[in-house]
# Entry
Amino acid sequence: MSDVVTYEVNGVRLVGDAEGPADGAAVLLLHGLGENRGSWRAVSAALAADGLRTLAVDMRGHGESDHPGEYAYEAMRDDVLGLIDALGQEQVVIVAHSMGTVPASLVAMDRPAAVARLVLEEGPLPFPAEPRRPVPECPDGPTPYDWRVVRDVAVQRNAPAARHWDGLAEITAPTLVIAGGPGSHLPQDQLARTAARIPDSRLVTIDAGHMVHDERPAEFIETVRAFLGPAHGPRRTGPETA
# Structure
């Protein structure tokens, strides 16, 4: 059973589901564009059963978290860094899907000591969208997330910052890149290039399309479990208890 938790970081209220033992190694789960923390339910439950402390968070503009109206990837990065600080963690594991892989990778670039292991599932970084994303205008009716997220992500996807490619070579965390195979809309050769750019990285393809953890949850979970392994839990701050 998960607990609903709330954090105030960078002036933004973020809502998440925490699951697993309170003293378990921390795993942050970052969803994709238009999704919410509920997309990680099966993954959270499985990792929590392994003794990990999972936190699946609604990213800014999504779910029950605040809609501040500004959605640069760097702002999302700062949200994740704020979460790590709020959790009092020296290191965390980050598992991210699609849009979430960009702030996840930026955290691993900019504060490498904070990321014990990194899982990037079907991430669009760091190549321009093919074809170019249309930049939407305000829709007529309500949307389940802030439509301005789609606008800002489209602009950034069409012209990614050079840092998003250059900085991959600075990631020190062991990294697992999960590709969805030919059924994905993302060019799979770009995911391979991303994996090759990260120094300690491996690429695994699960033929499920873009939504790997939704379409093939058992295989996704087993792949992540094998990557994390029992010996690679992140260090926790504070005194250890016997």
Summary: The mean pLDDT is 94. The chain has one domain: 3-228.
